[in-house]
Amino acid sequence: MISDPYAELGRDYARSRRPDPRIAATVTAALGDARSVVNVGAGAGSYEPEDRSVVAVEPSRRMIGQRPAAAAPAVQACAEGLPFPDRAFDVGLAVLTVHHWTDVTAGLAELRRVSRRQVIVTWDQEVFARFWLVRDYLPEIAEHESRLACLDRVVEELSAAGETPSVTPLPVPSNCVDGFLGAYWRRPEAYLSERVRAGMSGVALLDQNVVAAAVGRLRADLADGHWHRRHVGLLGRTELDLGYRLVTT
């Protein structure tokens, strides 16, 4: 039986984690001329191309249940054991999912086994730790994420397997519609919302007493203008590099 950590964590993902069209365009461009795509850790279907043959792989029944009726067919399985023959797909896609895999070495080996090329979205932990939400309010996020497999691990594993991965920054638009953790860097009031935070595993998996205290400090800093005075340089920006990275082979 597949363990489902998203039975609670993923209750509202279809609403809070909608694909941002600018990020989607970058991901789609990275697929190149691929005709067939396997989307591993597919969740509710964000960033799946609509103009190619796609099969989604998702371990959480809760997440599969939130996929739109018109979405690609989904198989309930884990990255570490993909139920497909070798080289069954042109591209293996994995968007903000590798850090959730229980065995990253096995998962990436499986992704390489079933696809000719790989397109992976992850993040640089060192860059992300400088994000104001993490640095000033919730350093516990960086502490927790230091144990996760992110950019360095992905590049290390792919390189060890004989690949030459290419890493491209994926800046976050100031009005990003996808509610991942860094999406609201210029809209700090959003982090006060419990519903918004529920769609961010990096926050939702922390001690919620710690989160509540941090949110209280942020609320106070917004109320007295301290946040805006300190981060006035962000207010005119249209995008920001928070460490999100596109890795392709």
UniProtKB/TrEMBL annotation:
Keywords attached to this entry: Methyltransferase, Transferase
Gene3D superfamilies according to UniProt: Vaccinia Virus protein VP39
Domain Methyltransferase type: 39-117
Pfam family of the protein (one): Methyltransf_11
Domain of life: Bacteria
Transferase listed as a keyword: yes
Protein name: SAM-dependent methyltransferase
Organism this protein belongs to: Amycolatopsis coloradensis
